[in-house]
Design goal:
The complex is a heterodimer of chains A (about 110) and B (about 120). By secondary structure, chain A is mainly beta. Chain A is about 0% helix and about 55% strand. Chain A is built from no helices and eleven strands. By secondary structure, chain B is an all-beta fold. Chain B is built from no helices and eleven strands. In chain B, strands 2, 4, 5, 6, 9, 10 and 11 form a seven-stranded mixed sheet that branches. Chain B has a four-stranded antiparallel sheet with strand order 1-3-8-7, with no helix packed on it. Classes of the chains: A mainly beta (about 110), B mainly beta (about 120). Chains A and B meet through β5, β9 and β10 of A and β5 and β10 of B.
Chain lengths: ~110, ~120
């Protein structure tokens, strides 16, 4: 099982739609959770951290379910500029050290 | 002002050559990283330094050698380049890890390495 798993997509949605991405992680001891956004041929940038209580930032809502080892990202009222790859990131213990582990990303295409 | 910068942005070279990629951050962070993103878009950590000390050294070939002359710089030297080294290499920096909790990582623009 991969340490961090995401549906690669692409999710192809019209402007204004609501879209949700899911991510599962294998290490139950993980403590840090993030969603990063990566535009084509660009570097990843932090979109939001994910907290146990869930958190919202404008049109974006992140949820964490520790029992199911599951993270979600909800985007409301999609904009064309939301088109990007969304990376789920979790810290995990690998070979006796903690490090951030990136999922392979979910691609979102927002069409006019 | 660029927070994390890398040079060069593109690097095309022949198999067997030795090349270096430079990284600098002006965020005052103590921790820096090198990541490799392959054609399948997986972003995998290669090395991490905290205040010039190596703290993560993933299973990468010995041909890859990081060097941190000071905490604002982390360079990557690659010997005897192979076709499989072709990828995008990202440098990143962050505040130090606190226990098992990680802080946001800021990435450089990436270096696209093509080995012919």
């Amino acid at each position: 099982r991969k340490e961090v798993e995401q549906d690669p997509g692409p999710f192809n949605v019209p402007e204004g739609a609501t879209v949700a991405f899911n991510c599962t992680y294998s290490n139950s001891a993980s403590q840090s959770f993030f969603w990063y956004r990566q535009d084509c041929r660009k570097e990843p940038k932090l979109l939001m951290s994910v907290y146990s209580s869930g958190n919202e930032d404008g049109r974006f809502t992140a949820q964490l379910n520790r029992a199911s080892q599951y993270i979600s990202l909800l985007i409301r009222d999609s904009k064309l500029s939301d088109s990007a790859t969304y990376l789920c990131v979790v810290n995990g213990m690998v070979d006796s050290s903690y490090k951030l582990i990136f999922g392979s990303g979910t691609r979102l295409l927002v069409r006019p | 002002d660029t927070a994390v910068s890398q040079t060069p942005k593109y690097l095309v070279t022949q198999m067997g050559n030795d090349k270096s990629i430079k990284c600098e951050q002006n965020l005052g962070h103590d921790t820096m990283y090198w990541y490799k993103q392959d054609s399948k878009k997986f972003l995998k950590i290669m090395f991490s330094y905290n205040n010039k000390e190596l703290i993560i050294n993933e299973t990468v070939p010995n041909r890859f050698s990081p060097k941190s002359p000071d905490k604002a710089h982390l360079n990557l030297h690659i010997n005897s380049l192979e076709l499989g080294d072709s990828a995008v290499y990202f440098c990143a920096s962050s505040l130090p890890r606190q226990g098992t909790n990680y802080n946001e990582q800021f990435f450089g623009p990436g270096t696209r390495l093509t080995v012919l």
